[in-house]
Amino acid sequence: MTGEPSHLLLLIVFAALSVALAVERFRPLRFTVPPYLSYLWMFLLAFIVAAWLSFVVAVWLLALFSFRTLREYFSLIDIRVQDRWGLWGAYLSIPFMIYLIQIDWYGLFIISIPVYAFLVVPFLVVLGGRDYRGTVLSIGAIDFGLFLFVYCLGHIGYLLLFSLWWATLLVLGVALCNVIDQLIAREGHPSWQLYLVKFAACAPVTVALSLALSPLTEIPQPHVTALGVLIPILVLVGNYTIMVIECDLGIAPARLEPGRGQIIHGTRSYLFAAPIVFHYIRYYLV
Description:
By secondary structure, the chain is mostly helical.
């Protein structure tokens, strides 16, 4: 990819977000930037690198991000000392999968984690020691984290390989849903009525964004409208699912810290949206 005039729009969004994050960091004003905007910044940084420098560099930046997210997850679950070989297998799955994205080997990418890594990790776990108690829980916890925080997030990198603007549509659509979700959030356990309200608020905005970006994405209007409706559904489903998982991991949204749930909380909205949007686009448009 090379920089084009249309990429200046992405650069402007990235610059505005960078200013907001810098102001919040030095705290001359009394406001807090939500955690998800920090990780939106990371995605936009990778997209700008892809547009102006190199897709290869950009996709390995995303690999580093997946590593950080997976490491935070492993720090929060109960892992036995003898599971260390399984952890190493999970970490090594990241460059394996990213390389497949880099060379555009879709057939192997799609089974890299759900088949090969899911078979290798259990083997490595049982090689780690002779205490069999907890083996099933360890394998399940490691494979689950690998699936969510490497495989699902990896689809953003593959979407970027197809088109810079397809990936931008996804991350900006998810970010808008997060902004609206925060504006109408309520205390206590959310009800299905609240989720309907959130969807009714998000869908028109994401559809409008999808239509506005249509000249850049070159996606036909029926499909871009469908994506605008699909993204908020996936964000709400993903947020609810990961919210329950966060509770089990002891992550408190009111006390988020790096390494203690901040990355997981900031990226949870992409975990369902990224793979499904990717496969929708690939099925209908590639």
